[in-house]
Amino acid sequence: MMPAIGNAVDSVRRTVSTVTTRVVEVATTLLAGLALAGWSLFWSRVGRMHYAQGDLVSAAFTTAVFVLPAIGAVLWYVARS
How many domains does the structure of the chain reveal? Predict the structure, then answer.
């Protein structure tokens, strides 16, 4: 009877471990997505501010250097998944 209890305990441990791993993976992905979204929104607003003031060079630079790489990272991650 003891081996059956041991097998049941091992099964529960494996299930808990699998669920915990999956929850951590999902939380990490969500956190990274939120960070990239926040980064993109912040820098796109900075670019819009430059554009509204008539500074087209700074607006283009801000968009090219800070916003497009973040969008590219999201697209790369989605394509990889």
Answer: 1
What is the CB neighbour count within 10 angstroms for residue 58?
15
Integer angstrom CA distances of residue 17 from 1, 8, 13, 28, 29: 25, 14, 6, 16, 18
Domain containing residue 25:
2-80
Q: What is the pLDDT of residues 24-52, one digit of tens each?
A: 999 998 998 899 889 889 999 999 999 99
Give CA–CA dist 69/33, Å, rounded: 13
| Distance, CA of 48 to CA of 39 (rounded, Å) | 14
